[in-house]
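hi! just following up on the protien thing from before. the input was this:
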Amino acid sequence: MNSTLHVQKDNSEVLLAVRGLEKRFSTKSGPVKAVDGVSFEVRRGEILGIVGESGSGKTTAGRAILRLVEPTSGEAIFDGVDLFGLSEKEMRAYRRRMQIIFQDPYSSLNPRMRVGEIIGEAIDTHGLARGKERKARIEELLVRVGLSAEHARRYPNEFSGGQRQRIGIARALAVEPELIIADEPVSALDVSVQAQVLNLIQQIQRDLGLTMVFISHDLTVVEYLCDQIVVLYLGRIMEKGPSQAVYAAPRHPYTRALLATAPVPDPTVKRDRVILQGDIPSPLDPPSGCVFRTRCPHAIEACAEAVPASEEVGPGHSVACIRQAELAS
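and the predicted 3d structure came back as:
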């Protein structure tokens, strides 16, 4: 079967540059800064992973980039254009080039629509195909994600969670996007199914040369898939850099703590246990200075005085911790 899907070949340039992204919500208890000055770049054909605990701002950052929630400030430069400066009409033209895979495969699919209608809706919105060509395109997408053409006639409730997520992936691919933001796409699935869906995402990304932002709380998953890693805590970046560098030599105490909790399949390998005390603080009243200091085993008084600047510790590898040099020795 000859694919009609768009393939990206040039991976030498930055496709997405996020600069100073902030998102604040107004609540009865006061303003909440869910994302606080997040900046990163993603080159064409790369997968960048955003990782952190629940409440760290990962999903909000991803949705703000696509303007599914409106950002408070900052820039998202997509292929040279600041998405945050576009009108709704102008933004609509860019939505074909950017798609999202949602976390919950059960609530993200309309139960009243057949699978073919769900995938075809995006094709119709952007006028990509009609008639026999549209039908063939839907069937091709279903086959690409590991389903069959006949599944187009069924409803979402006839599928398992893993199959529904495959449908969600097919829907995202339907408009030939250049960028896909995957918002914890396997966290709601059984462990036995997660690996299958991850392998599918990786294969599709390689085949089509897609650029991806992969959001997860699981560092093992991020290590498996991603070229670059951004570690978020309470809306701020603690560490970012090439995945190999971050995993080989994590410099921030929070990154080390996350890695220490990741399971290791080899029983002979021992890791130093890092037990974080308490829960992530409320964004309504974040700690002064370094927001991680209230749970950090290495915190000192100076950590409460000022927000630590991000320091380069290697090529493309930066850390926001005033004690990173001392802890690395």
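The chain has one domain: 14-328.
DSSP finds ten helices and twelve strands in the chain.
cheers
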